[in-house]
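Hi there, hope your week has been kind to you so far. Do you reckon you could talk me through the fold, stretch by stretch? Thanks so much in advance, here it is.
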Amino acid sequence: MTLTFYKYQGTGNDFIIVDNRKSILSKNNTKLFSRLCDRKFGIGADGLMLLELPENQYDDFKMVYFNADGNESSMCGNGGRCLVAFASFLGVIKDRAVFTAIDGNHKAIIKDGLVYLQMQDVSDIEKYDSHLFLDTGSPHHVTMVNGLSNFDVENEGRKIRNGAPYFESGSNVNFVEKKNGNLFAVRTYERGVEDETLSCGTGVTAVALSMHATKRTDKEEVSISTEGGELKVTFKQTKLGYEDIFLIGPAEQVFKGEIVC
């Protein structure tokens, strides 16, 4: 089979995307997905996404996301933004979208070349002496460090990702340094990729909420610098936690290709 695919990136977080509305790929073919994501033997990507027909009446499409290891994963924020841009490219939507991912329903807007993706509400942020833990569609460990640019993200991230209390299920791990009043730098070790990625959308969202929850910023719009570029997160704090959360940033098509599977 010759598979047509598209390559997208959002602040360096890169994805293979396939229009699967005609079910050309089986979602059980995890070995194929892993091979396609391999940077030496395949196309190369942090993950693979299928755009599928909606299952809900008011949705425009369905998002199915697989990590680079081939396993279906929890929500990917940058992936969601890229899939919205892809849906617009296909003509499935114009500048607004409603879709369902593994963590539930999402809304999105394309405006001034940026994709605004509404994330799930967050009601629980666990605070510890050394870190915070929260779920923004994917689980995230957030910890402050000094000298982020020289920090050993790969080794330290792997230790935390596999250690207590996460063990086999694992957690994404974010290392954060405050740059100035409302700007934070973050580097993320992603489970499923099992390495540092240039950007992580659910991680950036987790960092923004964590910085507000620990009073490192009092703003409800936070700028986050990643290795792949800058993203913004806006939100509203309520008595129940954080609502109306939007992950904002670019999503670009890199190329279109074909591969024999």
About this structure: The two ends are 5 Å apart (CA to CA). The mean pLDDT is 97.
